[in-house]
Amino acid sequence: MAEERITDQGAKDYKEFLHPVMVKNYGQWKYHEILKPGVLVHVADSGDKIYSVRVASPRLLSTVSIRFFMSVADKYCDGFLRWTTRNNVEFLTDKEENVELIIKAVNDDGWPVGGTGRTASNVVHTQGWVHCHTSATDASGIVKSLMDEVFEDFTSENLPGKLKLALACCLNMCGAVHASDISILGIHRRPPKVDYHLLGQICEIPTTIAACPTGAIRQDIVDGVKAMKIIEDQCMFCGACYTACPNMPLADALNDGVSIWVGGKIANARSKPGFTKLVVPFLPNNPPRWPEVIDAVKKIIQVYKDNGRKWERLGEMIDRIGWAKFFKLTGFAFTKYHIDDYKLATKSYNMSAHVRF
Amino acid sequence: MAEERITDQGAKDYKEFLHPVMVKNYGQWKYHEILKPGVLVHVADSGDKIYSVRVASPRLLSTVSIRFFMSVADKYCDGFLRWTTRNNVEFLTDKEENVELIIKAVNDDGWPVGGTGRTASNVVHTQGWVHCHTSATDASGIVKSLMDEVFEDFTSENLPGKLKLALACCLNMCGAVHASDISILGIHRRPPKVDYHLLGQICEIPTTIAACPTGAIRQDIVDGVKAMKIIEDQCMFCGACYTACPNMPLADALNDGVSIWVGGKIANARSKPGFTKLVVPFLPNNPPRWPEVIDAVKKIIQVYKDNGRKWERLGEMIDRIGWAKFFKLTGFAFTKYHIDDYKLATKSYNMSAHVRF
Amino acid sequence: MSDTPMMDELEKGPWPSFVREIRRAGKQSATARDLINILELSYKDKKTHWKHGGVVGVRGYGAGVIGRYVDDPVQFPGVAHFHTVRVNQTSGFVYNTKGLGEIMDIWDKRGSGMTNMHGSTGDLVLLGTTSEQLDPIFTDISQKGWDLGGSGSDLRTPSCCLGPARCEYACIDTLAITRECTNYYQDELHRPAFPYKFKIKVAGCSNDCVASIARSDLSIIGTWKDDIRIDQDEIANYVKGGGIDIMKEVVMMCPTQCIDFDGTKMEIDNSNCVHCMHCINKLTKALRVGTDQGATILLGAKAPIVEGAMLASVIVPFMKLEEPFENLKELIEALWEVWDEDGKNKERIGEFMERMGKGEFVEAVGEQLADGECGIEMTSQIDMINHPRENPYIFYDEYLEEEG
Amino acid sequence: MSDTPMMDELEKGPWPSFVREIRRAGKQSATARDLINILELSYKDKKTHWKHGGVVGVRGYGAGVIGRYVDDPVQFPGVAHFHTVRVNQTSGFVYNTKGLGEIMDIWDKRGSGMTNMHGSTGDLVLLGTTSEQLDPIFTDISQKGWDLGGSGSDLRTPSCCLGPARCEYACIDTLAITRECTNYYQDELHRPAFPYKFKIKVAGCSNDCVASIARSDLSIIGTWKDDIRIDQDEIANYVKGGGIDIMKEVVMMCPTQCIDFDGTKMEIDNSNCVHCMHCINKLTKALRVGTDQGATILLGAKAPIVEGAMLASVIVPFMKLEEPFENLKELIEALWEVWDEDGKNKERIGEFMERMGKGEFVEAVGEQLADGECGIEMTSQIDMINHPRENPYIFYDEYLEEEG
Ligand code: SRM
Ligand code: SRM
Ligand code: SRM
Ligand code: SRM
Ligand code: SF4
Ligand code: SF4
Ligand code: SF4
Ligand code: SF4
Ligand code: SF4
Ligand code: SF4
Ligand code: SF4
Ligand code: SF4
Fold first, then answer.
1. B272 part of contact set with chain A, CB < 8 Å
2. Is C259 in the pocket of ligand 10 (CB under 6 A)?
3. Of A283, A258, A260, which Cα lies nearest the Cα of A181?
4. Best of D268, D269, D281 for a ligand 12 pocket test (most atoms within 8 Å of beta carbon)
5. Chain B residue closest to A353 (CA)?
6. Which entry of B191, C32, C119, D152 is 20 to 30 Å from A165 by CA?
């Protein structure tokens, strides 16, 4: 009865999918130039050149649009295209004259070009209300609202250095939220509301208890049946229990919202990679355009524009001017929530008399 | 029956004990100069001057020697003298001509002058075998052996910056061992040998169990009596249990010894204060002169002399040249013991691709 | 008035709109149309309407599909089922129109017409289909030579930067390494058997354009051991060109201050260079990575849950990586072995290493590797840490027993 | 051959010898003589011969004496008892010969003739006496106006740098503050009632010559809020003098690079100065601390046991400190109140603050202070930390309840 079933083939061979100029000069590149925002040329030791045109994408793409990209690639790029690690589309051609034609073609269908060099990046983001059950906020809607407003910073090199943006819709952080220049993080603020009746049946109680980082979940007996209860003041709303057990939803329209983090970085260039740090502990979900969130991010970008030195990333700038000044310039309030209280907290305490007045 | 008993008078008034020139110019000092190693002059706004002569001390002083110091103070300092926060003696006079007389007087009784400016400091140290029950090594003997060997660095300004030395004879660290340029730390390497029979009687079992940082102590029953046992592979020999309970001695001639730490600092000058870091995990107790220990410290000082920039503290120098180079220059072996594994350990991991070859 | 005013609002503005995308798909797909409706409702209610996913999948595979159901299937029948399928992207996310077209055709036939190009881990994510379609989708893509990615407690789809295919900085063949890790470990990718997920990302240099140091349990970053190559003529050209203030923008920004520049000639103290890439990034025509190339291997990046977010940290300061990457495989298997042995359920390898102590962990991996064929020596090394321990709580292994 | 070859060896060499000291004392004291003998034995056996001390002390006091017994009183009767007495030093460790002579006389009469000048905490430590002598010693020193220091779970003897008595950098009256803290809190010093020990150290400026930031639960460090005073003429003199390379040794070493120097004139961006003292230290004639002086208060330094070593961290970025220091006392009492309330046995205040969370701790102290007379406002402030939290595990206090 066993039918012929093909399994475990693995990933397709990328070699089929590389532009012939890239195959020829593989590993033999000499340097590159950014011809203008969104347009790169890479020059090989052989003198060969490959041009890349980077096109913004909302990541959530229809087959319709992808087919449109394919048509552009067929016309100008010998059928080759790629996506970047930040979900932009890149068109690759060895013909300089095609660059402007590609730009025109994509622009005409509503796709902007940019995102290279000292620009604001596309936003690494996640599912939100489009697909995920744990989300404390939407992803795509905030990203759209934000990029509409900082559009110029994507299409022109307005900034001191690269500005990497990220969003995750819950503390699972399915993205680079913990290490980006500016991150938006969906956040719950209520302990899960345990559905006592279903508990014993659907969830594995020990697994759920073990999932909680703070040990806030205790075994309980309700109506003679094994259940769980939450010690509410030990709960910090992370949702780890909900991932383990569907009967502990955290979503709560009144209390869910968004926090803002800054100054993380991944590249090893100059300073070491580092985590993002909290600046705004909570802003409400205010769809469709989350104006409070967008405002806060724009404020941060403005401070970066005004104070950053060339090539300096946002976090490097803040290290130089000091966090106190950064809060002063942005006008955000400093609260007890900004002071870490998790296990590695003490390392963030100011163990010195280094103070600015 | 209540006799007249004077209690709770508190500390004596320091005003009685200040040289009149210091009383007159209290809080009105303008600047100071180091006239030569061990000799300071402080100049007041009024133009008044006070000269200080700093004299080395082993801290462990007999009344005989203190009376000798008193005689010098009476002769040249109007009866005033003080101790420094590092246990040196300071003679204070407003008469410049007395400076050399003081130096001669103390030198004649075997007391060197120095320890100011860019010198090796006196060693902050503790009791060791002279008085303490928990010591893993002696204090005074190592200090004496060390200072005999680095004597020139105390009496002359040979170093890039100040070099603050410290020693503690066990992990209680009754000194500044966790934040000095070079620290010597007595260390046990065996779990306590529990004396089961006395246990229940002398120690409070719950207090002892609670004292252990790693939770290595468990309740036990021996011959029907409540006792304690040690899970040996969870013990890191800190001695906290012994402080709580006399029946858990750790001292062990074969396994006790000394570890060496570097790069800590207390002053806020330039960089923030910081902890010392392990360089030599273990050297044996080798009385009376601990040659292995003294050698290791001398090696470190030599590397500091050769590589430090003016005013740079040892830890600042290492930050600049990198730990790898420091280990290479000193020749110490790097082992797994150098990698922190306590709660804040991850913060010390190299979370970057910053690597030197 | 429209039924979906908030969705409509998000079609406006210069940035490409995801709503337009869903509507484009909606032209042919009822699922996509109901996606807009349920999203509008979420915007109104300010909360998700998706239920905790059940276990759905493809026969013979334990991974590659995420189940999802709407909470009100009666009102929104189009998204009653809304599962996603994770398809292995190619290394470097490169495509030609023929290959990509195969996926598009299948997805138009069997799914919502919506995708994520790409998922955060790297997969080509097909967004929204029903349980019945899962096996047929798998059969169809298999026919065309595609396969599924990871999910659950398994190896996740490795990913990488474009590296040597286009970039002058690449010190390792990121694309080949990624494909080899993917294809060699098919079982680990498709049939979850680890304590928890395990992600691999490969960057050609320490610019880390694939965010490996933040987002992968095993982060492989290209580097070099010898000297940075300097073309003094090109330095002179930069000086002449005037587009860059070399002193300010390069020399002063070197993290270890190991560059010497007198206005014309540049010298680098390579023994103090930490391979940060900054000078090479800025003077791309004049400076080049060295020729003794290989990788720094880092371990343990992860998001916050449970023990707090971690960046990956160095586990092998330098190793050569050449096809067929046997030494890398030996290392990976040794890491898995040690983690499998003592890792707890849902404990990422970084958390496990932290719990065990990095020194002990390295020792255990070293013991595994000792039997290997590649002769990898794995011992505690100073580049694994920023600085030696500050804490005196040392677990000395050895102590002497009483004499006699 | 000598009975004490190792002790003899340690009498040699240029550094003052503790052995010579003990032998000097030994001329009159059998205790000191047996101290040499027991030490020689320890050197031979490579271990201590002191037993865990019992509870010994002075009537009416719970502190100030550390009990100590030798393990072989038969062999070493001189040190059968070898207790230490901690006498309050004066602020700044200053003495005149009359005062110091009083102590010497008493100690020659009732003790070993050996001292520690001074103990690590700061006390004038009298080393080695018997239980019977303790009360008489106390009576004698009391007569002369001296008193005992702390030990056990109490306030320990505060100490300080010499500060305004001799140093041009002092921003606060370290000596007065230290004496006030000592004498105002006599009960807390002499009768242990805290969860654990509590140490106070006072430094006149951030050079911290009393190591307060590493060695005291409450570290008080002088600082200023306005501008560093610059005497440009003296700068010119330094330039002329040539003893110092201002650019290299001062400007480049400023941690925030906030000094501007064109070779003749110096300007400081005081808003970015972190009050590290370096420039002032190096140009002591030209630069002076500002005139709006006060202190930064830091909390929580301690040695490693149990939760790991800590340096003190900022709890009040700036406060004025003027006699009679009412605001400081209010602060100290508020800190004690919160610690006393919830601190566990043997939990230092720094560990307690860490367990509670610094933000919560500050809030609790702030509530205590709200009722105070000095109007101290204590809220979370950015100077308390190096950077805001990296961890998203935030305990939000407030959440909205369902409407309607
Ligand atoms: C006498 C004493 C204070 C006291 O009340 O007893 C003192 C006195 C002075 N210190 Fe200090 N310091 C004293 C212990 C300290 C300590 C604490 C310690 O050693 O445990 C420190 C912090 C140690 C550390 O950072 O690890 C300390 C770090 C400084 C510094 C910062 C040095 C640096 O750049 O890192 C200065 C500034 C300088 O020297 O330029 C300073 C400056 C000074 C000045 C110049 C202040 C002045 O104008 O009076 C004094 C003479 C300095 C000298 O000896 O070169 N003093 N000084 C202490 C002498 C101890 C001894 O006998 O050796
Ligand atoms: C689809 C995707 C987000 C996206 O929009 O791209 C995703 C979606 C989910 N992630 Fe994720 N994660 C995705 C990449 C990530 C990443 C980023 C990465 O891989 O570079 C991370 C952070 C890095 C890491 O692995 O730590 C990430 C960290 C998590 C975590 C936290 C894991 C941790 O150890 O802290 C969870 C929770 C869990 O595993 O139980 C999680 C769980 C989930 C679940 C399965 C929800 C859950 O509670 O079980 C999400 C399903 C959403 C849905 O309905 O589709 N997801 N997840 C990404 C996978 C697509 C792909 O295969 O390409
Ligand atoms: C296309 C892409 C790789 C890919 O395989 O997809 C890429 C391509 C290049 N990167 Fe990148 N980087 C790409 C993601 C990243 C990431 C990862 C991320 O964004 O999540 C990082 C690390 C982010 C971080 O640090 O937080 C990254 C940090 C860099 C840096 C370091 C910047 C810095 O100074 O901090 C450089 C060097 C530079 O630009 O000088 C660099 C340099 C480059 C160069 C110049 C390399 C080259 O010669 O080809 C490429 C063009 C740069 C440009 O866009 O300005 N790339 N680059 C990725 C484009 C993402 C996008 O669509 O926006
Ligand atoms: C005498 C003195 C050492 C010296 O040679 O100067 C000393 C001696 C002892 N210390 Fe200490 N400590 C002394 C200053 C310190 C300091 C330094 C300081 O105060 O600046 C520290 C580090 C700072 C701190 O407080 O954390 C210190 C941290 C400890 C600890 C660890 C406390 C902790 O929280 O980690 C212990 C253990 C304990 O309290 O149980 C301890 C315990 C002890 C005991 C009582 C031993 C014990 O196991 O109970 C020692 C008695 C020795 C003896 O036989 O005389 N001693 N102790 C110092 C007090 C003299 C004085 O009053 O002036
Ligand atoms: S970040 Fe949270 S809500 Fe968003 S996709 Fe990941 S698991 Fe779902
Ligand atoms: S939300 Fe997080 S902290 Fe709260 S009970 Fe669940 S797992 Fe624990
Ligand atoms: S450091 Fe340890 S051994 Fe030394 S005096 Fe303090 S408690 Fe005793
Ligand atoms: S020595 Fe320290 S770790 Fe070992 S049992 Fe005693 S308290 Fe615990
Ligand atoms: S990580 Fe390095 S090699 Fe890879 S694309 Fe980025 S710059 Fe090029
Ligand atoms: S790669 Fe970085 S560390 Fe190395 S020389 Fe260049 S800038 Fe300096
Ligand atoms: S701490 Fe400051 S004020 Fe006190 S002695 Fe040292 S330099 Fe002077
Ligand atoms: S005190 Fe320190 S931070 Fe302030 S200007 Fe001087 S050197 Fe710079």
1. yes
2. yes
3. A260
4. D268
5. B268
6. C32
Q: pTM value?
A: 0.95
Residues 6+ apart with CB under 8 A from D363: A336, D379, D380
Pairing of strands B182-187, B257-262: antiparallel
pLDDT of residue B1: 41
Confidence at residue A145, expressed as pLDDT on a 0 to 100 scale: 98
Where does the pLDDT of residue B198 fall: very low under 50, low under 70, confident under 90, or very high at 90 and above? low
Show Cβ contacts of residue C216 under 8 Å, excluding neighbours closer than 6 positions: C199, C200, C201, C301, C312
Which residues, 6 or more positions from B160, have their beta carbon under 8 angstroms from its beta carbon?
B118, B304, B305, B308, B309, B310, B311, B312, B317
Map out the domains of chain D with their CATH numbers. 5-143 (3.30.70.2500), 159-225+292-386 (3.30.413.10), 230-288 (3.30.70.20)
Instruction: Provide the pairing of β-strand A182-187 with A89-93.
Output: unpaired
Q: CA A55, CA A60: separation in Å to the nearest integer?
A: 14
Q: Which residues of chain C are under the pLDDT cut of 50?
A: 404
What's at B146, amino acid-wise?
L
Give the lowest-confidence range in A24-38, A186-200, B24-38. A186-200
The closest of D233, D192, D162, D164 to D63, measured between CA atoms, is D192
Report CA(C152)–ligand 2 centroid distance (Å). Answer: 9
- A124 in contact with chain C, both atoms CB, cutoff 8 A: yes
d(CA C39, CA C200): 33
Q: For residue range A71-105, list pLDDT tens digits in order.
A: 999 999 999 999 999 999 999 999 999 999 999 99
| Stretch 361-390 of chain D: residues touching chain C, C-beta under 8 Å | 390
Which among C380, C310, C368 has a CA at the least distance from the CA of C340?
Answer: C368
Ligand 2 contacts CB of residue C199 (under 6 A): yes
> C164: Cβ below 6 Å to ligand 9?
no
Question: Is the dihedral angle over the CA atoms D36, D38, D39, D40 positive or is it negative?
Answer: positive
Beta strands C293-299 and C218-224 are antiparallel
Q: State if residue D203 touches ligand 11 by the CB under 6 angstroms criterion.
A: yes
Q: What is the share, in percent, of chain B residues with pLDDT greater than 70?
A: 97
How many other CB atoms are found less than 10 A from the CB of residue B100?
A: 12
Separation of A118 CA from ligand 5 center, angstroms? 29
- List of chains touching A (3+ CB pairs within 8 A): B, C, D
Using a pLDDT cut of 90, give the percent of chain A over it.
Answer: 80
Looking at the predicted structure, is the pLDDT value of residue B200 above 70?
no
Would you say C35 and C112 are in contact if contact means Cβ atoms under 8 Å apart? Answer: yes
Residue of A nearest to D380 (CA): A336
Q: What is the ipTM of this complex?
A: 0.94
* CB-facing half-sphere around the CA of C346: CA atoms within 13 A: 17
**Mutation target vs C (from A52, A57, A75, A129; most C CBs, 10 A cutoff):** A129
Tell how far the Cα of D255 is from the centroid of ligand 5, in angstroms.
41
**Among D205, D215, D157, D198, CA closest to D335:** D198
Ranking A120-134, B58-72, B223-237, D364-378 by mean pLDDT, the lowest is: B223-237
Q: Please give the average per-residue pLDDT across D159-181, as a whole number.
A: 98
- Tokens coding D327: 């605001």
Tokens of A196: 């006592």
Measure the CA–CA gap between B135 and B250, rounded to whole angstroms.
Answer: 9
pLDDT of residue A197: 63
**Do A277 and A322 touch, CB atoms closer than 8 A?**
no
Q: Does the pLDDT of residue B321 top 50, yes or no?
A: yes
* pLDDT of A236 over the 70 cut: yes
φ, ψ dihedrals at D315, nearest 5°: -120, -30
